[in-house]
Amino acid sequence: MPLLKISNLQKNFDGLEVIKDISLEVEQGQVVAIIGPSGSGKSTLLRCATLLEKVDSGDILYMGEPVVYTDKQGKTCYAPHKDLKRIQSYFGLVFQNFNLFPHYSVIKNIIDAPIHVQKKSKEEALAIGRDLLARMGLADKENAYPCQLSGGQQQRVSIARALALNPKILFFDEPTSALDPELTGEILRVIKDLAAEHMTMVIVTHEMSFARDVADHIIFMDGGVIVEEGTPNQVINNPQSDRTKAFLSRFYEI
Amino acid sequence: MELPVILLKLLEGLLVSFQIFALTLIFSLPLGLIVALGRMSKNFFIRNIIKIYISIMRGTPLMLQLMVVYFGPYYIFGWTLSRDYRFIAVIIGFVLNYAAYFAEIYRGGIESMPIGQYEAAKVLGYTKTQTFMRIILPQVIKRILPSVTNEIITLIKDTSLAFVISVSEMFTAAKAIASSQASVIPYLAAGLFYYIFNYIVAFTMECVEKKFSYYR
């Protein structure tokens, strides 16, 4: 059973069709990279999958459990609140602009949800949090506040915050787009480490070479549809569609 | 009347002014938050009733509002209330008025919060109440502190309006002594006391703001 299954997803913003008809599956341990031009619907797709946006129609299932489904009359329905709460714990999301809680220290950012959402003991949450900070190379920043950290460090804290809840799948919404070029490397390295540990991930990114290196499945989106998908070798090295070729040509020029 | 006696009488009045000040804050700060939430409610009736309430509180003089609260029960319902009701009426009037102003300050603070904070909390699984109490409100308090300080300082000076229903706060006392002694000294002394009171409050609020400056 796929960890995430999306079928025939559609989403409008005031009549503008941002996602036209998208179906995709993510298997346990898979790393999927979604690439495409701005406005292609990549981020919206992620936001629908993480329940930040309501879809207009289509199905979304996590481990076979429906988040959104189509009933017998063909109506699009969301699962009841208590089911959504449970399914929400299956995934984590790393934002483009981190969205750390500025009034909490680094460690509090990481352990607050485990303590107050998952009802873990403070000791247990602290152990998990410190372990994650060490893995992110931020063991000495435990008591710092987000405003005292560089963008790259903040993004690593936000990855630790998402991982602290032990999600089955982690989404990244352009995790390096708000960072200086010299800071993107540290984030990409962290994601590569997670991939090596077989963390299931869906990454929306503009970093083509990174997508090629880290992903085992690449989806190229444009105009709200999946234009082309396949292995990195297929999509990035031997694109079939003209739109993919045109998009990637800019990448090869550099 | 000797100066020490005048000062003593004024200090007695100051104690009443301080009671009005403290009780108003204790009740209107939490009430303001509730009013702000009502003002932002999705429910059409709640939102608009609150809007009308805020509009009346801000659109009419506080002095008139105090008179309505004090004389209203008699003229509208024919109730005769005890002399103690004067002080209660002052507190009710001030709380209702200040809650409306605080509500608008809270609302401004809450609406200025970036949507990303709500989204991060939602994805992490916080309930709506947890999101508000743990993530949003603490940051809102920091943002609104300068405006709240402003209101609090205005409140100190506004306590003198209680004289309109003869509650013997400091300004009422100053007025009484000044007319019996044909002297402006009581007014000047009262002015000095108000200033010192305000100075202490402003200093305290500055310390509170510093306490919140550990993050940006």
Number of domains of chain B: 1
Q: Average pLDDT value of chain B?
A: 93
**In total, how many beta strands of chain A?**
11
Uncertain runs of chain A are none
Amount of helix of chain B: over 70%
Q: Determine the most extensive contact between two protein chains.
A: A-B, 27 and 19 residues
Unreliable stretches covering 5 or more consecutive residues of chain B: none
Task: Write out the strand line-up for the largest beta sheet of chain A, numbering strands in chain order.
Answer: 7-8-9-3-10-11
Strand-pairing-aware structural class of chain B: mainly alpha
Strand share of the residues of chain B?
under 5%
Q: Report the principal-axis shape of chain B.
A: flat
Considering the protein shown, what is the CATH homologous superfamily of chain B?
A: MetI-like
Order of helices and strands of chain B: HHHHHHHH
CATH topology descriptor of chain B: MetI-like fold
Give the % helix of chain A: 25-40%
**Backbone shape of chain A:** globular
Q: Rg of chain A to the nearest angstrom? A: 18 Å
Quaternary class: heterodimer
Q: Give the rounded overall mean pLDDT of chain A.
A: 93
What's the architecture of chain B, going by CATH? Answer: Orthogonal Bundle
Could you explain how this protein is built, in words?
The complex is a heterodimer of chains A (254) and B (216). Chain A is of the alpha/beta class and 254 residues long. Helix content of chain A is 37%, strand content 26%. Chain A has helices spanning 42-49, 81-88, 106-116, 122-135, 151-163, 181-196, 208-214, 232-237, 242-253; strands at residues 4-13, 16-26, 31-35, 57-62, 65-70, 76-78, 91-94, 169-173, 200-204, 217-222, 225-230. A 6-stranded mixed β-sheet of chain A has the order 7-8-9-3-10-11, with helices on both faces. Chain A has a 5-stranded antiparallel β-sheet with strand order 2-1-4-5-6. The N and C termini of chain A lie far apart (40 Å). In chain A, 46% of the residues are buried. Chain B is mostly helical and 216 residues long. Chain B has 8 helices and no strands. Chain B has helices spanning 3-39, 44-59, 62-77, 85-111, 115-123, 128-158, 170-181, 185-211. Chain B has one domain (3-215): MetI-like fold. The termini of chain B are far apart. The A-B interface holds A 50-52, 85, 88-89, 91-93, 95, 97, 99-103, 112-113, 116-118, 145-147, 161-162, 165 and B 114, 116-117, 119-120, 122-126, 130, 134-135, 138-139, 142, 214-216.
